[in-house]
Hints:
Blueprint: E1 3-8, E2 22-25, H1 35-48, E3 52-57, H2 68-85, E4 88-91, H3 97-100
Parallel strand pairs: 1-2, 1-3, 3-4
Amino acid sequence: NGSIIFINKNHRLMYDLKHKIRVVCMEEFEGIANIDEYIGFLYGIISSDHDIEVIFIDGILYHKDIHIDDLRKFIVRLQQISSKHELDFIVSISADMDVLGNSLEGCELLA
């Protein structure tokens, strides 16, 4: 079994998760200001643990400076990283489907 990473905006769920799950609180990384920096941050996490199986990103639109207009580019980059490093991303997004448009094209959606 590989490592599980849970990225959240704050510490709200930290104590609700099993101790084997690595929780990353984005409030501790205020300098991440756009999706390119966020992707770089993900690469840093991946490079520190080559056994990552899945990265959960909770409420991506609540993270600093990540907007619906950025989602398509962000999702494509996650798909590329997922393929190259053989890990999965699960991203929660709080938005109406009609607002998201084709941002999630090619993604498995859970309602």
